[in-house]
Structures are given as C-alpha cells and as structure tokens.
Design a protein that fits this description.
Blueprint lengths: L2 H15 L5 E2 L5 E13 L4 E15 L4 E15 L11 E16 L3 E2 L1 E18 L14 E17 L2 E12 L11 E14 L14 H7 L15 H8 L15 H6 L17 H7 L16 H8 L15 H8 L15 H7 L25 E3 L14 H16 L5 E6 L6 H21 L7 E7 L10 H7 L2 E5 L2
Parallel strand pairs: 12-13
Antiparallel strand pairs: 1-6, 2-3, 2-10, 3-4, 4-5, 5-7, 7-8, 8-9, 9-10, 11-14, 12-14
Length: 495
C-alpha cells in the first residue's frame, strides 16, 4: 500500500473517530477490578433483608466485544420470617457465602467510551449459615461448610475514564442451590447491585500509546512508531504529517531538499535573545516571515534552487524566485551570471543586474554601468522593418561575430526598454548556392539571433525567427551590389 493510499485510509478513519471524544477497546487487554454493593436474598422466608458483598474480577479481551475471565467474591445474604410457621420455625437466617465463577462478558457497544454489557457464568458457592444469635443454623451442623452451584447473570455498563481504567455498574441475578436457606420449598437466588473500578493492562490497535492522534493500528499501517509521537524526529507529530501536511512521517525530509519537514512548516527555531540566531545576515523576524516553504516540493518558488540551498547556502528566499528584485532569478544569478542574488546591483555602479544583462553590459563591472553613447533605434510601428547594415554573416555561417553583437545591442536595447513589443527576425540570402541550402542557412542565422536575445533576458515568446533563403529579393542578383542588399536581416515589429 502506498503512502498516499494509506494516508487516504487514515484520513477516512480519523473522520469516523472524530465523532467520539474518547474511544476504548478491550481486545488483547488484561483487566482486574473490584466491585462493591448491596444484595437481596430471594428464598422461602417472607421478609427480605439487604446484605452487602464484594467481588474481584479478572478478565482478558478475546475480541473487541468478547472477554473471558472469572470472579471471586463474598456476599452476606440475610432473610427474616414473620410470623413463624410450622414449616419455617426460625425468624432470621444469615449466609456467609464465598463464590467463584468463570464468566463471559459481551460488550454491546465496543470501542466506545460508554459500553453496556451482558455477562453469564458458572461456578460454585461455599457458605455457612447463622441464626439471629449468630449461632450455627441448624445447630446440629455446628459451623458445617456447605456448597452450592453458583450461576451468575448480569447486565451493566462500563464507562472508561481513560484507556487504562473504567468505572462499572452491574446489576446481577445469581442462581444458587434451593437448599441454601435449609428450607425445603421454593428456590434460592439473590440479586446484587455492584459498583466498581477496573484497571486495564496492555494495549491494542485501537489505542494511541504515544498520544499523537493516530491509533496503534494506523501507525502500524504507516510504519510509524506507536510509542513515539514524532517517528522521524522532524518536529511534526505523526498525525499532523499524515492528516494536515501530507508529508511522510517516517522521513524527516519528505521532498529531499535539505530542510526537515518541521523546519519547512514551522520555519526556524530562533533564539529570543539574539536578533539573528544563525548569523546569516537576516534577522529572525525576516526569516520567520519568509521561510514557510512547501515540505512536498524541493523547490517551492521554482527558481531552480532547492529550498535547502536557498536557506542554508545562499540565504535567498525560498518563496521568491527573485530575492533582490532585479529581474533575474536567484538560480540564474548564482549559476549563470555569478551575480549576488541578495544585491540588485552587484557591482554597485548604479544600474541593477537585470538591466545590465538586458543591455548587454557586465553586471560585475562597475565602469560600464553607464552604457556608451550609440545611435538608438527609433521605435518602429507594427509592420515596420528595421535593417541593420552591420549584421553580416560569413559565407554559409551562422556564427555571431563581435560586429554583429555590437549591432544587436541596438535591438536588445529596443526590446529591453519597450517590454510590450514583439518582433519577427527574417533572414535572407542571395541566389547563390541553391534554394535548399539558402533556406537552411537563413533559418540557422535567424535562430542564432533569437537565441542571442533570449540569453540576455528577452522572453522567447516575444521573438519569432524565420529563414526565407533567397526569396523576396530587394535588388537584382545580377551584380555584387544587388546580392549584398539581398543578404540582409530584417527585424519586423509584429506587436
């Protein structure tokens, strides 16, 4: 079962369990308890007297609903006769009864805090009889010990205080030998009401031993430690990882970005006595408000650097792809241009790194921050074409030479200063070399010029490159002068 599937199952199970403030299962648990309360002996005498008794109960949960065990108890049974008769010539009888039985309990509402139950058992009763003067009755038996069958039936309920203890109320009916009262007629029995306290030992799949909000059974499904609320030690409880953050509770760094899930969710642990706990140049306040990354994505802001690299190595913001706001992503600054992603103007010359890169100047060289004077290209209208005579490629070559780069600086400046315009680069050749070859080399030249602009920060969506080969000549190809005019590159504004 995948972690995603197990997470779904656990979310569903937790939603069901959420309706109960507390849940308890007796399965696989041993319990011991004591119960005390009054009884009422039902026998051949006509005046019932209330006696008292107690029971010790031990049992084991076979399933969630069924437990087996036994009871050992004592009850003082009392009865009175008035008026005396020939058949019943004694006015008072007391039975001191010890009983033991094997019993079965059926919980009617298993795994809940309040559990009604039924029980039935079978055992034996050992007793002695006394009269009103506390002498043996009948006197001829002289403290003789008697024995009787003992069959207990009970209904009751158990209310759990916590997973280890409960209070009980039990109303029972106990069948005993009809001669227990030493009278020949009728049948003997007694009712008993018992109040008690029970302690449970052991645990099962329905328990939450570590108190993290997941049951032991759910933790076993996930592979987490039921005795540790934070199995992977990342600072998040197993339940929060599964149900809230959808992270892996057995892996401290789910997305493998170098930051633990807890650090990503709860940001950094700071020292209240230090404004900059980790001495990284950022105040704790800035860090706390910045680093709230996604523990399921290694690169939260999608800038090409993992959250761990940004936080631990470069100290850039993992939530902002351009920390210093200079128009260049952190990854491009660090890995491409080698500029400082925390300083918009790395060389301190007064022009930010993004503008320098778009203009074609060096963002690491202060002296070129004021671009040299050169003739600017006027802003063309849509449909107008710009032809720069300095753009001349070598024979059958698409390599961009320094002179071509110098001329392309004008197009770069035009595009950088007017971010809304789009252009189409159209490359043409003369008629020498054949149509197929000319079409191929002209497309390669147009593509090379497009890539040059893209490398300097101009979006590819603003540029289209087309090679037309020897089509659309602007002069006859019968002279060198005409062929030179046909070997041209046009920059046509399309938007």
């Amino acid at each position: 079962m995948t972690i995603q599937t197990r997470t779904f199952v656990l979310c569903l199970a937790s939603a069901v369990l959420a309706g109960h403030t507390f849940a308890q299962s007796i399965e696989d648990k041993l319990s011991v308890g004591l119960r005390f309360g009054p009884n009422l002996w039902v026998n051949d005498m006509n005046d019932r007297k209330v006696g008292v008794g107690f029971e010790a109960v031990g049992r084991y949960g076979v399933t969630r609903s069924l437990s087996l065990g036994g009871t050992l108890g004592y009850d003082a049974l009392k009865s009175h006769q008035f008026p005396l008769t020939v058949a019943i010539p004694i006015d008072y009888v007391k039975v001191n009864a010890w009983h033991v039985s094997l019993e079965a309990w059926l919980q009617l509402s298993s795994s809940k805090k309040f559990q009604p139950y039924l029980s039935v058992g079978f055992g034996g009763l050992q007793y002695t009889r006394k009269d009103g003067s506390n002498l043996p009755y009948p006197i001829t038996e002289s403290d003789k010990v008697n024995y009787s069958v003992y069959v207990p039936f009970s209904v009751g309920f158990e209310a759990f205080i916590n997973k280890n203890s409960s209070i009980t109320f039990d109303f029972g009916y106990r069948l005993i030998d009809p001669n227990t009262d030493n009278l020949p007629d009728g049948s003997d029995a007694f009712t008993a009401v018992k109040f008690g306290y029970t302690m449970y030992f052991g645990s099962n799949d329905d328990d939450d031993d570590d108190g993290d909000g997941l049951t032991n059974g759910q933790e076993r499904e996930l592979g987490t430690n039921p005795n540790s609320p934070d199995t992977d030690g990342d600072g998040l409880s197993d339940k929060d990882e599964v149900l809230i953050y959808k992270t892996n509770p057995t892996k401290a760094d789910t997305d493998g970005d170098g930051l633990s899930d807890g650090d990503e969710v709860w940001r950094f642990r700071t020292d209240p006595n230090k404004p900059d706990t980790d001495n990284d140049g950022l105040s704790d306040g800035a860090e706390i408000s910045t680093y709230n990354t996604d523990p399921l994505k290694p690169d939260t802001d999608g800038d090409g650097l993992s959250d761990g690299e940004e936080v631990l190595t470069y100290h850039t913001s993992p939530l902002n792809s351009d920390t210093d706001g200079d128009g260049i992503t952190d990854a491009n600054e660090i890995l491409g241009y080698h500029t400082n992603p925390l300083e918009a103007d790395t060389d301190g010359g007064g022009v930010d790194d993004g503008t320098e890169i778009r203009r074609g100047t060096n963002p690491l060289l202060k002296s070129d921050d004021i671009p040299p004077r050169k003739e600017s290209v006027p802003l063309p209208q849509v449909g107008d074409a710009i032809i720069l005579d300095q753009i001349k490629f070598g024979s059958w070559s698409s390599q961009i030479t320094p002179s071509i780069e110098f001329a392309m600086g004008k197009i770069l400046e035009l595009m950088a200063l007017n971010p809304d315009i789009e252009i189409e680069i159209r490359s043409y050749t003369d008629d020498r070399g054949g149509k197929a070859r000319n079409a191929k080399v002209s497309q390669e030249r147009a593509d090379a010029l497009k890539k040059w602009l893209e490398a300097r920060g101009i979006s590819s969506e603003r540029i289209t490159a087309k090679g037309f080969g020897q089509e659309n000549p602007v002069a006859p190809n019968t002279s060198e002068e005409g062929r030179e005019k046909n070997r041209r590159v046009e920059f046509v504004r399309t938007k």
